[in-house]
Specification:
The radius of gyration is 17 Å and the shape is globular. Helix 2 links the parallel strand 2 and strand 3. The chain is built from 8 helices and 9 strands. The protein is of the alpha/beta class and about 240 residues long. The longest helix has 18 residues. It has a single domain, classed as Alpha-Beta Complex (Spore Coat Polysaccharide Biosynthesis Protein SpsA, Chain A). The protein has a 7-stranded mixed beta sheet with strand order 3-2-1-4-7-5-8, with helices on both faces. It has a two-stranded parallel ribbon with strand order 6-9. The N and C termini lie far apart (about 40 Å). Bound molecules: guanosine-5'-diphosphate-alpha-D-mannose. The site of guanosine-5'-diphosphate-alpha-D-mannose has 24 residues, from strand 1 and helix 3. Guanosine-5'-diphosphate-alpha-D-mannose (GDD) binds next to strand 1 and helix 3. It comes from Paramecium octaurelia. InterPro entries: DPM1-like (IPR039528), Glyco_trans_2-like (IPR001173). Pathway: Protein modification; protein glycosylation.
């Protein structure tokens, strides 16, 4: 039977963590799937670690907490998470409920029917979308995707999205070569995967802007993204 490991990076997700954890395990139970969750917690000032420890009492071995002393960014959170996964499939998603666990059923179905290496959730295909984003955020996301896909010539409708299911060995192989950090990390994974000849399928998702907490995607993250994109242009 397949086993699925979900990596949840957390920074100030005290309110969201119990809900997302519950939704993932409920979805798994309902569909008779074997799931574990790996939380990569970067010493959030809001007490996310204490919430995670309470959840551990409920879910036991199915929930792993990896604590880091300081905020080290998304890319390194995924890297650390992978080392702790037991599954033959790895899911990467946000912990803030913008990525709804209900879509995991579609991801798994798509992977099974196509035997693809990566399933990526796309906001920019038919039936996909975003909810509760202001004009600025829409423009930034569309702009970042447009820049990346035209400049790098990669066919994928949502290169900057981060809700994905990977065959474990594929992610392990690809991630070794990834040089980008922060938000460009996800993009580089798809580009490298395509280079290796791995297959990528897309599934529509509706990304819902978080209700609790704040996005960490500020001007500085966007600058890091642009620098990352520039670097990738010279790499490929
Ligand atoms: N451990 C850890 N977690 C982090 C860090 N920075 C962010 N996170 C966690 O990573 C997830 C996404 O962070 P947000 O800051 O909420 O992301 P966003 O602004 O909504 O950005 C979304 O869109 C981007 C571009 O479309 C995506 O690249 C990104 O992954 C995310 O889906 C959340 O679970 C958040 O707690 C960090 O430095 N360390």
């Amino acid at each position: 039977m397949s086993k699925y490991s979900v990596i949840l990076p957390t920074y100030n997700e005290r309110e969201n963590l119990p809900i997302i954890t519950y939704l993932i395990f409920e979805m798994a139970k309902k569909n008779n799937l074997d799931f574990e969750i790996i939380i990569i917690e970067d010493n959030s000032p809001d007490g996310t670690l204490q919430v995670a420890q309470e959840l551990k009492k409920v879910y036991g071995d199915k929930l792993i907490i990896h604590f880091r002393e300081k905020k080290l960014g998304l890319g390194s959170a995924y890297m650390d998470g992978i080392k702790l996964c037991h599954g033959n499939f790895i899911v990467i998603m946000d912990a803030d409920l913008s990525h709804h666990p209900k879509y995991l059923v579609d991801f798994i179905q798509k992977q099974k029917t196509t035997n693809c290496d990566i399933v990526t959730g796309s906001r920019y295909i038919n039936k996909g979308g975003v909810m509760n984003w202001g004009f600025d955020r829409k423009l930034t996301s569309r702009g970042a995707n447009f820049l990346a896909s035209t400049m790098l010539g990669v066919k994928c409708s949502d290169l900057t999205g981060s809700f994905r299911l990977y065959k474990r060995e594929v992610l392990e192989k690809v991630i070794k070569d990834v040089v980008s950090r922060g938000y460009a990390f996800q993009m580089e994974i798809i580009i490298r995967a395509r280079q290796y000849g791995y297959t990528v399928e897309e599934v529509p998702i509706v990304f819902v802007e978080r209700i609790f907490g704040e996005s960490k995607l500020g001007a500085s993250e966007f600058q890091i993204y642009l620098k990352g994109l520039w670097k990738l242009l010279w790499t490929f």
